[in-house]
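tool=predict chain=A
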Amino acid sequence: MSQNKIMEPCQLCKTITSKYVCPKCNIQYCSIKCYRSPDHLACSEEFYRHCISEELGARGEDFNKSEINILEALKRFNEDENNEYEDIDSDEENEEVDDLEKRFAEIDVASTDKLWSLLNDEEKTEFQKLVASGKAIEMVPQWKPWWNFRSKSKVLESEEAFKDELKKNGCPEICTTKKLSEIIKKDPSPLVQFNVFNVLVGYCYIMLLFNGDLSDLSGEATMNLLKVSTNLNSSVNFNSAEEAIEDAIQQIYIHPELESSTEMIKSTREGVRKTLIGPHALLPDYYVMAAFSDIKAMFNRVLNQKSKSKESRPERDLNLSEKVENLDRKKVKLSLKKIEFFLAWACEFGNDFCRLFSNNVLLTETT
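tool=predict ok
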C-alpha cells in the first residue's frame, strides 16, 4: 500500500498495519493469514471457488469426460493433508464419482453458484477446509497477460491464422467499429493520443487486479476502471503522455480500496508498454484495439445485465452488489461512447501512435 495513503490497521486482526485490499469486499488486511481467516472466509471462499470453476471450465472436454472433476480435486488435496481416503473401498469410491458426475451432467461449469449448490455438506466443508488451510490457492491458475506475447518473426504469412493464435493466447477479439468520419465531422483533437494513455493504464490495472477475467465481475471492474481513468470518469483531457499516465497512477494511490503495491504499479506500466508494442511489427496497434474492444464488451455487459433482487443474493454479496447497482448508468453509457470513439481513432491512427510511444520511458518506471 502506498505511503501516500493513511496507514490503517488490518480490519481483521486489528493489530498490524494493513497492506492489501480485497478486490471483492474492499476490506483492508495485512497478510494472507488474515485473508484466509474465519472472519473473511466467505469472501476468500468465493474467490477460490470462482477461480477453480474457471480452471475446470477451461478444460472443457476433459471435464466432461470426468478425467478431472471437483471430487477428485477435493480428494487429492485432502490426501495431501491427512490421507483420509486411503481406506475407502474402491466400489464406494466409484459410486461417489458416479454420483457427482450425474449431479454435474447438465450444469454449465462456468456457473459457480450452480456448482456450489450441487456439492453436499461434506464436500462444501472439505472445500472450506482447503480455503482455510491455503491449499485451495494451489488450484488457482496463474494468469499470464496476453500482451506479453510478441512474435519475433519479421514476416506474417497469414494474418488470419496469426490472429487465431492470439485469440487462443487469451487476447480479446477486436470488435467491428465505425469509421472515425461517421462519429465526428472534424479532425480529432491532438490531445486524444494522451487520453488513450490514461484509459490504457486503467485497463491494464483492472486486468491485473481481476486476474485477467472481467466477465463475471464486470460491474466491479467497471467501477475500478472509472476510478483510475479520469478521462472516462470526468472527461478530463491531458496535455502530455506523462500527465495522462501519472494521473491514472495517482488515482490508484488516492483510492484506499485499490491495490497499489510497487509491484502492481510496475506491472501496470509494463502492461501498457507491451500493449503499445503489439504482437507483431506489422500489427503494432492490434493490442490497443483489443484492449478497447474488451472495455467495450465489459461496458455492454454492465448495461445489459439484469439486477437481482436482494432476496436472491447471498448475504455476503449484498453490500458489493448494491455498490455495483449504484453505478451511474448514464456515465457508463457516456464512457462506452468514448471507447467507441477511441476504437475508431485507433483504427485510423493506431499504427503511428504505437510506433511513436511504444518506448515511452514513463512506462518503465517502477514507482
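The chain has 17 helices and two strands. Confidence is low (pLDDT under 50) at residues 1-6, 58-69, 81-94, 307-322.
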